[in-house]
What we know:
There is one protein chain. By secondary structure, this protein is α/β, with parallel strands linked by helices. It has one domain (15-245). It has nine helices and eight strands. It has helices spanning 15-45, 49-68, 75-88, 162-170, 172-178, 185-196, 203-209, 220-224, 232-236, and strands spanning 93-102, 105-114, 117-119, 136-137, 140-141, 151-152, 216-218, 243-245. Strands 1, 2, 3, 6, 7 and 8 form a six-stranded mixed β-sheet that branches. A two-stranded antiparallel sheet has the order 4-5. Strand 1 (93-102) and strand 2 (105-114) form a beta hairpin. Helix 3 packs across helix 6 (185-196). The longest helix has 31 residues, at 15-45.
Amino acid sequence: MTDFPQIHRDGQRGPTSDFLLGRQMEHELLVKLQTAQWKKSAEAIRTPGLAGFRVFATFCGILDFIHQRAWQGACHASSVVFHVLLREQGADSVLCHGMAEKNGILFNHSWVEIEGRVYDAAISNTVSRDVDSPPVFAGIDLATMQDTRLVYGAQSPREADEIVVFAREKGFNAYMDAFPHLRHGLWGAARDVGKRIGVRLNIAKLRAVYADTAWIERAPRERNGEEPDLPGDRFATGADPSLRSG
């Protein structure tokens, strides 16, 4: 028994391959429709003016890229690409990491903040349906158009984030270069997304400019000066939620 599509000896597709192709096309259409709605919602709340448009366009470029490339669980990768593109256009973005929480589930995550507001495209394509959520634009859930119910910086990490540690010890350029299946690593991804939104990038210059880039860890005390009631207290009192990665 094989998982590969059945092919007739004359080279024509069999019923299994037709079914799989149909399912794939259906999924791709649904993704396009969903991302189109999310982008429409983001446009409705973006900041007016050129700076606001650049943030919006870059967010849309990242959103399209991670869904078209099936980047599941690539929160760190998509966040650094987003951060670099925003910085190249003059946005004062902050690259963040920490524990995020949804419905009592804690997971390692990365995102970008601008003026204290969360921008998170990767949350819409995680490795777990339990934490999968609509993308967050300027702190707004793009499905409900309300403040996101996700908690960013929900709990201080129990253990060091391996990717963040790697970038710290080996250097940011080493992390960007090491990303697999892409020419020029994540620099190549940044250049590809940049082309989609009209931003031309020079990888050699990017490596020099962003060599000292580091994630900023977000924890409860940094967000509001005191430990929140949820989910930190829940975590501390023994109701140990699943620890996952976004």
